[in-house]
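User: For my dataset I need records formatted as: sequence, then structure tokens, nothing else. Please produce one.
Assistant:
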Amino acid sequence: MRVLMKTEINAASAEVWKIISDFNLTSKYIDAVESSDMEGSGVGAIRTLTLKDGVQVVERLESMDDQAKILSYSIIKSALPIDDYVSTMKVRDIDNNRCELEWSSIFTPRGVSEDEAEKIPETIYAMGFEGIKRLLGTEK
């Protein structure tokens, strides 16, 4: 299944890209993440996210294009009820001081309904959007 969410941010795309392209910065903009530990750098880097409830999610950076402002990552180990998860984040200019952040994923639910599975990334993406705006001081 696929989830796609977008938000407009009152900041230059380069500012937003600086945050999301730092693959180990997740705990600064997603409230549910207690900590992030990273092994390696660049494509192939592995981050282990420890959520506030103690659950760990291990993700791998699959691709990153600084010029196009797009990255993708996959979950390689998790207790979350989703399999084959691959996510993409894209930043697009609207004008000099506004951009759109798109966050999408494809995955297979495991042991839960599609509606239940869909809520997992939707909740994370909404938290992430608000957290990025908070870091940039652009909350509405």
